[in-house]
Amino acid sequence: MREITLDLVHRMPCHNQQLNNVNSGQEPPMKQVRFANNSSGSTGSNSSSSSSSSSSSSVPAVLSNSEPTDATILPVIQDNLGPQLKLLPLNDQIRELQTIIRDKTTSRGDFVFCADRLIRLVVEEGLNQLPYSECTVTTPTGYKYEGVKFERGNCGVSIMRSGEAMEQGLRDCCRSIRIGKILIQSDEETQKAKVYYAKFPPDVYRRKVLLMYPILSTGNTVIEAVRVLIEHGVQPRHIILLSLFSTPHGAKSIIQEFPDITILTTEVNPVAPTHFGQRYFGTD
User: Three-class SS of residue 149?
Assistant: First the structure.
């Protein structure tokens, strides 16, 4: 009976379920990533997994079964970030896209193609964080359908220049969404981030903002961008930062400065692909 149960589990894995490590050694354990605020975890199918389940529930599962170098970031995530950091659930598709983007031998055409795919996944999940309202529509056959629709008052803001790589992905999902821009560069003398340009919808203070910046390294650029948005009346709790890759330091710096902001990314790793903007726009 035990063998039958395990066979069913391996045949029908749930998308967000962390499978128990009960294999016999034929296959290496897969990394599982779930949203940082999903503290419920998954229930084991046998008593031997209860201890590992209880230990993993005490730490937001940013990287499970991670390499030793990655394990050092877990206390930082646990102590300082919490539910404000949301990670896309890791699967083979996302892992492959991350690998291709990080590979120095990847051609620019493949790089842009895979980056656009990963951006689209992040944007789609970012839209899930926006408020919906219930609605009823009539189908062509005359039936009533109970559905949902976006509440009005959303916009995108890209941090130039690398953030502009994410604009098309947002427009592909929201055809008429308004997009603002912020230009931030490091001052040559002080090496501090300085705002050179900012253009937003006139009523940005009433909107939920999808702030787009693909790589969070130090977090300084994003912090300056959020300060500009706050100066224009936007509340940090209405800002959702869409990113592809983040370092622990970058995410920590942003959330410590603005505890109400939401960060959505695919990976937290001490080494971020900082070459992203140059490769995407062909300026490397």
Answer: strand
